[in-house]
Amino acid sequence: MYQTNMKTLLTIFAVTLFALTTAAQKPVDNPEYQKMLDTLLTHSVNEISPNEVQPNKDVIFLDTRAKKEFKVSRIDGAIWVGFLSFNKRRVKEIPKDKKIILYCSVGYRSEKIAEKLQEEGFTDIHNLYGGIFEWLNKGKIVVNDKGPTQEIHPYNKHWGQWLDKGVKAY
Questions:
Q1: CA–CA separation, 154 vs 103, rounded Å?
Q2: Domains identified in the chain and CATH numbers
Q3: Which terminal Cβ of the chain has fewer Cβ within 10 Å, N or C?
Q4: Which residues are designated catalytic?
Q5: Residue 52 contacts by C-beta under 8 Å, 6 or more apart in sequence?
Q6: Which region is the signal sequence (predicted)?
């Protein structure tokens, strides 16, 4: 009986710890946004929240949005690789063990490109959970060719609803 109770307690503890850890890794403040992301994404690659990101020279950001979105603003230092026009030649100079964080507006396009990079042998791939929208929602800086900006391309009005901060620039 003692062993059964102990196993049950350990199982409950493990499940609770897993749930808390998972929730801590992917927090967004808007519950509807959280629900949409959990439905939209397959969670097939490692995810990282904006608050977990420690930008430094050892992290490479890859922007998987359309070129016109990238031109409006991007995470500082990001390399544009696109989505529909993605070609693995754009990442051929990046070492396969380098830490890479991919992003798009909300995380769907970047998740798909991250899957392709994993298939190509990249080993330290992360999808920015909630995308550049959540990056900006959390108060992180985006830039354009002139420096820091509050402008962001919301993709379209449907997706732009998840952007709480910044100036929407179509």
A1: 14
A2: 30-168 (3.40.250.10)
A3: N
A4: 104
A5: 25
A6: 1-23
Tokens of 99: 């830490």
Read off the tokens for 116.
Answer: 């392709």
Q: What's the pLDDT tens digit per position in 116-156?
A: 999 999 999 999 999 999 999 999 999 999 999 999 999 99
Tokens of 36: 């949409």
Percent of the chain at pLDDT > 70 equals: 85
In this prediction, residue 126 carries a pLDDT of: 98
- Type and span of the H or E element at 3: helix 2-25
Pick the closest to residue 157 from 140, 138, 170, 143 (CA basis): 170
